C-alpha cells in the first residue's frame, strides 16, 4: 500500500520531519516544497542552522516527491546517497526547500533540492539519489 500526502503527514507524527517542524506546502511527483523553522532545536552549538538539519529537510522533500511519483505502482523510494553544499548561515526565521526531479527511472531517481531563507537567498543546494522499492505495508 502506498501513502498519500495526508497519510504520510500522519505517519510522520513523532518521526524526524515532525521533530524538526517540517511542514509540507506543496507535494507532487514533480515538485515538493516544504518549510522548516530555524530555531534552537535545529541549531548547531554556535546558534546557526545545523547542516544536518538542512540535509534532513532535503532528503525529506526528495523522498516525498519520489514516493508520490511511484506510489500508484505500489512502490516507494528510499535514499541511497545525498550530498549538500551549505552556502549561507541562518540564525532564525525559516528555510524553504524545493525539490524537483533530475531523473525518474524505473529503479532509481535523482532529485535536486534548493533550500532558501526568507529573503529567497540560497542556503543549501543538495542532490539526492533514491532507490525505488516495493512499498512496505502501512500500519
Could you walk me through the main structural features you see in this protein, from its secondary elements to its overall organization?
This is Hotdog fold thioesterase. Belongs to the thioesterase PaaI family. It comes from Deinococcus navajonensis. Keywords: Hydrolase. With 139 residues, the protein is an alpha+beta fold. Helix content is 22%, strand content 42%. The protein has helices at residues 5-11, 16-19, 51-70; strands at 23-27, 32-38, 75-86, 93-104, 108-116, 122-134. It has a six-stranded antiparallel sheet, covered by helices on one side. Strand 5 and strand 6 (122-134) form a beta hairpin. The protein is globular, with a radius of gyration of 14 Å. The model has no long low-confidence stretch (mean pLDDT 93).
Provide a short characterization of the protein structure.
With 139 residues, the protein is α+β, with helices and mostly antiparallel strands. The chain has helices spanning 5-11, 16-19, 51-70, and strands spanning 23-27, 32-38, 75-86, 93-104, 108-116, 122-134. It is built from three helices and six strands; from the N terminus they run ααββαββββ.
The topology string of helices and strands comes to HHEEHEEEE
Spatial order of the strands forming the largest sheet:
1-2-4-5-6-3
What gyration radius follows from the Cα positions, in whole Å?
14 Å
Based on secondary structure, the structural category is alpha+beta
Report the biggest beta sheet as strand number plus sense, adding barrel if it closes.
6 strands, antiparallel
Number of helices: 3
Write down the overall mean pLDDT.
Answer: 93
Low-confidence stretches: none
The separation of the N and C termini measures 10 Å
Percent of sequence in beta strands? 35-45%
**Shape type:** globular
Looking at how many chains there are and whether they match, the oligomeric state comes to: single chain
Task: Name the helicity range.
Answer: 10-25%
Number of strand segments? 6
Amino acid at each position: 500500500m502506498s501513502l498519500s500526502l495526508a497519510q504520510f503527514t500522519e505517519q510522520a507524527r513523532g518521526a524526524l520531519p515532525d521533530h524538526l517542524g517540517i511542514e509540507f506546502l506543496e507535494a507532487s511527483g514533480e515538485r515538493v516544497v516544504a518549510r522548516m523553522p530555524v530555531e534552537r532545536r535545529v541549531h548547531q552549538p554556535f546558534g546557526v542552522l545545523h547542516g544536518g538539519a538542512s540535509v534532513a529537510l532535503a532528503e525529506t522533500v526528495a523522498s516525498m516527491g519520489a514516493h508520490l511519483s511511484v506510489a500508484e505502482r505500489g512502490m516507494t523510494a528510499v535514499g541511497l546517497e545525498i550530498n549538500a553544499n551549505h552556502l549561507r548561515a541562518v540564525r532564525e526565521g525559516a528555510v524553504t526547500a524545493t525539490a524537483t526531479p533530475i531523473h525518474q527511472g524505473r529503479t532509481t531517481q535523482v532529485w535536486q533540492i534548493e533550500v532558501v531563507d526568507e529573503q529567497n537567498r540560497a542556503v543549501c543546494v543538495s542532490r539526492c539519489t533514491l532507490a525505488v522499492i516495493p512499498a512496505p505495508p502501512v500500519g
